[in-house]
Amino acid sequence: MEPDILELESFLPYRLYRLADTVSREFSRIYKERHGLTRPEWRTLSGLGERGTMTATELGEQSAMHKTKVSRAVAELERRRWLTRTPDESDRRVEHLALTRAGLAAYREMVPLAKAFERELLGKLSVEERAAIVRGVAALEGALSAT
Questions:
Q1: How far apart are the C-alpha atoms of 134 and 131, rounded to whole Å?
Q2: Which residues contact 66 (CB under 8 A, 6 or more apart)?
Q3: Dihedral sign, CA of 122, 38, 12, 62?
Q4: How far apart are CA 105 and CA 81, in angstroms?
């Protein structure tokens, strides 16, 4: 291979991106079919379901989504009456987002489906491969968060 050519198919960042995108698309079929959700809407629903009340900024940081995607997802979930916005008492520019009963019900319905998807995905690997991927991902996350 020439030093000035980058083979994307063997370039780890590209491979990780492709893998993450493929896994995300596969899982998206489940929540799209069940509730007609987009990926940002699912990430918003699951973030609020896991953590409770959050601001849009916190949601963006937690889910690694751009603020415009968060804003659109919040607007759609609010339209469905799956979340509420409550202005912050000390800073009216900030809104606290929380799931409604209907939103929480949708989230709770999706949790076992998400866990089953993960089990099925990991079931394609041997015990050693599962342990290696968990360790490897944790190691990369740790190394990258230190920078």
A1: 5
A2: 60
A3: negative
A4: 12
Q: Where are the beta strands (DSSP E) in the chain?
A: 54-55, 83-87, 95-99
Taking the C-alpha atoms of residue 35 and residue 52, their distance in angstroms, rounded to an integer, is: 20
Q: Which residues pair with 54 in a beta bridge?
A: 97
What are the distances in angstroms from CA 97 to CA 64, 109, 142? 17, 20, 29
Q: Exposed e or buried b for every residue in 88-116, given b needs 16+ CB within 10 A?
A: eeeeeeebbbebeeebbebbeebeeeeee
Contacts (Cβ under 8 Å, ≥6 apart) of 105 = none
Paired tokens of 35: 């509730």
Long-range pairs for 138-142 at CB < 8 Å and ≥24 separation? Answer: none
pLDDT tens digits, 57-108:
999 999 999 999 999 999 999 999 999 999 989 988 889 999 999 999 999 9
Predicted TM-score (pTM) of the model is 0.86
